[in-house]
Specification:
185 residues, mainly alpha, globular, transmembrane helix, cell membrane, chromate transmembrane transporter activity, transmembrane, Chromate_transpt
Length: 185
Amino acid sequence: MKKKLIKLFLSTFYLSAFTFGGGYVIVTLMKKKFVDELHWIDENEMLDLVAIAQSSPGAIAVNGSIVLGYKICGIPGVIVSVIGTILPPFIIISIVSFFYDLFAANPIIQALLEGMQAGVGAVIVSVVFDMMQGMLALKDPISIVIMVAAFIANYCFNMNVVYIVLLCALYGVLRTIYKTRRKAV
């Protein structure tokens, strides 16, 4: 378990240190690392992780690392993965704040940051397609309808994601109750 904790720390530290663009970008990279490369969790667990991380208060990257760390190594995994996730931004922000005057006026730094922002959109699109393929592979028409309806509600009608998650959670609870009662009969 000690080797796994070290690998978990180094992986979350690396992902957090070299990820620009926010929580959804790190979720994509977590999927590539922990699902595709290390095989510590599967596609469905990753989808659950994203749902929990997004619906919980706080940063998606930290919430995701909490769920991931717990799934992989329990409470020690939570501690290690959270430290690995928050340490790089803490170090970077400390350095930037110390040298703020030099960074703020430097056109090269500004151009570099703008270039990074351009790549963020591509990474997010990549994650959406990966997760969409996972949903389509389930061949569950209700899940596909929910996915499309959630997208339309958010993108076309600008519905707050919190309401979408709550509605999906309510649907999940009602569906589970229905299936449980149906089995009992």
